[in-house]
Structures are given as structure tokens and as C-alpha cells.
Design brief:
about 170 residues; alpha/beta; Ribosomal Protein L15, Chain: K, domain 2; 3-stranded parallel sheet; 4 helices; 6 strands
């Protein structure tokens, strides 16, 4: 076999249909777009438009509420933490904090804090500071001889109300 004899499998590449190239092509004149009107023109985007009727996405009821100042925590599992300790990325002898995990490359950023969850097994004796932890995760760390310190999350300062001009 030679390089100039290589070819794709039959049907692997589809040839582009050239529309609007004469009546003999089968897709001439209207180029398979039907006849006249908005949809036969280029640049049309009528995705959710229903002819002036109230669109379905506006007719459906909306539910729920997302608080604008909601906290976003990074989830750290005990098993993944044990893997990082075994690999030597995190030192179990030192106190483990959000800053030390980011510095070690274990996390990209700490967001509003760390939440420790019990997924996997932890064998190392660690002293860890987190913003939140599940009861099972605390029990697992304490069973291994470690300690979990839950620190308070810093609240943002309240916004000042604008004064009305009398």
C-alpha cells in the first residue's frame, strides 16, 4: 500500500449539496426553501416565535428562587483527600486549610469555603479546617485519629441603602 492509494471508506464523506444552481439540479429556483415569505429569506431566526401568540416559555409558570448572596462551597471527599496524601501532594502532619489545598494544587480555588463529605476511606491522621462537614465525614476523620474544625463562613457586608433626596 502506498500513501497516494489511501482513501476514505465508501460513504464516509458526504458531498455538500449545491442549491440554487439551475432547474436541472433538482434544487434550483427556490433552493428547497419552498415559496416566498420570511422563512425563505436568509438571516431568519424565529426560534420561540409563535406568530404573536404568547410563547410557551412565557405561558408556563415559574417556580423557585435563588438567593443572590447564596454561598458556594467546594466539595472535598475523604477518599480523594486520602489519595492526595498518599501521592504526597498534601502533608498530613500539617494543618490542612483551604489555602494549603489551593497551594498544593488539590483545588483550583476555595470559593466561599470547603465542605467535607464522606465518600471513600480516610486512614491518615489529619487536622483539617473546613467551612462545613457532614456528620459521617467528621466521624470518619475522628475514627482515623484526626480532628475536624468547622470554621464560620465570613458574611459579606450588607449593602447600604441609597438616601432619597427630599
Amino acid at each position: 500500500m502506498k500513501l497516494n492509494q489511501l482513501s476514505d471508506n465508501a460513504g464516509a464523506r458526504q458531498v455538500r449539496k449545491r442549491v440554487g444552481r439551475g432547474i436541472g439540479s433538482g434544487t434550483g429556483k427556490t433552493a428547497s426553501r419552498g415559496v416566498k415569505g420570511q422563512k425563505s429569506r436568509s438571516g431568519v431566526a424565529i426560534k420561540g416565535f409563535e406568530g404573536g401568540q404568547m410563547p410557551i416559555h412565557m405561558r408556563m409558570p415559574k417556580r423557585g428562587f435563588t438567593p443572590p448572596s447564596q454561598k458556594s462551597f467546594v466539595v472535598v471527599n475523604t477518599g480523594r483527600l486520602q489519595d492526595a496524601i498518599d501521592a504526597g501532594r498534601v502533608d498530613a502532619k500539617d494543618a490542612i486549610t483551604a489555602e494549603s489545598l489551593v497551594k498544593a494544587g488539590f483545588l483550583r480555588r476555595a470559593k466561599d469555603g470547603i465542605r467535607l463529605l464522606n465518600k471513600g476511606e480516610i486512614k491518615a491522621k489529619i487536622d483539617i479546617e473546613v467551612s462545613g462537614a457532614s456528620k459521617a465525614a467528621i466521624d470518619a476523620v475522628e475514627k482515623a485519629g484526626g480532628k475536624v474544625s468547622v470554621i464560620a463562613v465570613k458574611e459579606p457586608a450588607p449593602k447600604k441603602a441609597k438616601k432619597k433626596a427630599d
